[in-house]
Amino acid sequence: MINFIFRRVLYGFLVVCGVVIILFWLFYVLPGDPVEAVMGGKGDAKTRQNVARELGLDQPIYTQFLYYVNDLSPIAIHELSADNYKKYNYLPIIPTQYSLVLKLPYLGRSYQSQRRVGEVIWEDIEGTIVLALTAMLFATLIGVGIGIVAALRVNTWVDYTLVSLSVVGISIPSFVLAILVSMFFGFYLSEYTGLKVTGSLWDMNPFTGDKELRLKNLILPAFTLALRPLSIIVQLTRSAMLEVLSQDYIRTARAKGVPFHKIILKHALKNALNPVVTAVSGWLASLMAGAFFIEYVFGWKGLGRTTIEAVGQRDLPLVMGATIVIACIFVVINIVVDILYALIDPRVRLE
Amino acid sequence: MLEIKNLHITFETEKETVLAVQDLNLRLQKGETISIVGESGSGKSVTALAIMGLLRGNKKCQMTGEIWFESRQFGRVDLTKLSKDDLRKIQGAEIGMIFQEPMTSLNPVYTCGNQVAEAILSHENITREMAQARVIELFKKVKLPDPLRKYNAYPHELSGGQKQRVMIAMALACQPSLIIADEPTTALDVTVQKAILEVLEGLRYDHDTAVIFITHDLGVVAEIADDVLVMYKGRVVEQDDALNIFDNPQHPYTKGLLACRPRLDIKMRTLPTVSDFMELNKEGEIVEKNRQTLGETLLYNFISEEEIEEHNEALAKQKPILTVKNLKTYFPIKEGLFRKTVGYFNAVDDVTFEVYKGETIGLVGESGCGKTTLGRTILRLVEPTAGDIHFNGKHINALNKTEMREMRREMQIIFQDPYSSLNPRMTIGQAIIEPMQIHKLLPTYAHCKEWAMELLEKVNLEPDHFYRYPHEFSGGQRQRICIARTLAVKPKLIIADESVSALDVSVQAQVLNLLNDLKAEFQLTYIFISHDLSVVKFMADRIIVMNRGKIEEIDYANEIYESQKTPYTRRLINAIPRGSSNDILKARQRREERNKK
Questions:
Q1: pTM for the full predicted model
Q2: B48 close to A (CB below 8 A)
Q3: What is the CATH number of the domain that holds A305?
Q4: Which residue, A152, B321, B382, B485, shows the most beta carbons closer than 10 Å to its own?
């Protein structure tokens, strides 16, 4: 088990390294001018030169790559100086002039806002994680429940209705649904629901200026985001349950007189969960990258919106930072899911 | 204690209504063992499910008749009329059931102990600890080795025989007065089968448990059944005392069933089949063919010992077609962080033998002894670790990939499971033609097709089966299709790996006869791998007994069966169920003696 986790973490690290290398090539070697992006088409040649020097663009590519990796690595070598300390916020291990230091990965500064990329992402990612987790939790619980009901009532009107509804749920584009939901529940019915069209996890209190937690704002975007994975989970659970229910060991359980609800929840469900776990993990990972339409329509502060805006403005450090963070999240979710498989099914050996 | 009156079961399918059980009557006393015998589709398993109440909730199933059961909780009740909740109180508590497939009948995600304990906890109000103690007692009773560790083991960590013991423990958990065993030993080795039969027999002495034993193989039940009920296509064709059934079978189907088991005492030229004794007329009724007794059938049909000896001598003069020398196949065992090889599993360990042209060599041993790996290594489907294989003068190990592929035309294999070894999306014709095209055997498609149709006829199928898909065929037919596909490339050596193990005895006899006919016609050499020693006895000229990857002994078939050199072989041979009336009488005497005590 520990061996397995260790090996997976190692592989995960290699994946992240691969992402870092590919990103560097994509953004530094491909045509396009970062200076242009920073200046926004303004400024004279001298200013441009200064900006290029500041970004390290006057150096050869391999030097740029070394700097880039050195910036990213939590254990790095930096010259100890007040400027560098301000930039990296490091913790020196050996206090010489060029010292081995510990620090948080430095992702650069946004071309646009000049803020640290790490800070920008950190601010946004909370909203994204809360939204994604809530949506997937809702989708999984309700989806599995409905899937079981459909499987138990297979080929009756209940089953047909649930399956048809889930097909509708899969086919509605998320932006259409987002607009419909926000209109109905956030606007027309807002008197009854008490919900607003837009809002984030943290809102500013107009009187005190403090940040306040607004969990209520989570309901509509989470519901909208959940509907599609929910529909897919319904179908996956239904078909997996149908297959499992025809297995010999279900017959064995019936033959020993196990009560019906226990046959379904204990014997059948645990065996049927594998495809559901696969689907949930895939969805969760992609939702962690942000759900642009939902965030846009509901005015939710999240990673998706920030990333898309950064792409539009050619804000390279921000895009690169977001990509690396998302890659890390994917790796972590995959490791967790592999462990989860083994917990559900003892035949999966963590070897 | 159990009485079934006029049981009638039909199943609704898309096309028609199938009659599964027709007018079945049965009485079972306390402590009695009754056996229901018949081929697949005869309605024997359906009857078991009906008694157990497991057909309830199946909307396609219609059931009439009465099943009276002497219940400890409710007195004498009709199980078909009992409410769902009351029935649940009987299921597992008063009637226990053992299923055919121990591999799939246990839930893979819970420990064996947990599953047996669940049977107790579903019916009795006791603590989990008490249940656990009882389960460990049960595991001891069914002779499961290391019961404490097996309690926490998952089903996939156990062998087939051990899983079946867990199933028996589960059926026994609440000390039921009736146990229904549905083909409990079909998938197991003879030695394991013997042990399981002993456990089941022990039950009737210790607890006076009644047993309904369902099987397709009459031989298995000879020694343990009091009464036998023979079913064919949903109807009971014969119902009598076991001794009478074996000594003096009345119905042609029973005669056929008895005759088609390969015998250990004499070697038959061809195996009699059920169709030698009866046929179905247009209305689907059974008509008896050329009225003859079992004895007569055997008399005209066996090979004398002189003949066998002559045949053996002629074989020995032949050149070996296959020579295997010091063959080793090791599988590495990997462990640790960097998957380092810490040891080897010696699947085939230093094996040397020769196969003569035109010979059938039998390869027997318990499961896990390496017989399948040996077969696959010879074809290089598994790469050997060391050793030499010479086929027809060619050094097989030295061939490169292309040459090996060429070579496979001459060496073919027939697999065990006819259900999964045919691609469901290919017609029978495509399946048979594919190997011909790969080896560019015939110039045009038309030639291939002609040859494929001829092959279908040779394996007793219709030429227009060419256009059909595998799902339209029964297990026996599919195995014949596999044989036709194997023959398509005109091989010299065929390895048959448990090729008849998945088939009913009656179908098995047909396929075995077919294999022998084809051998004569195409001058084939067989390596016949099987765990069923009576089948090997019928097929093989010489037999290799394998144990833990090594050859235990190798000799002419009749020698091995008459005098065994090693205790392992002796144990194997002694475990074969004989099913002669002599054995039945002995078993009955044993039973009476024990009852007196």
A1: 0.80
A2: no
A3: 1.10.3720.10
A4: B485
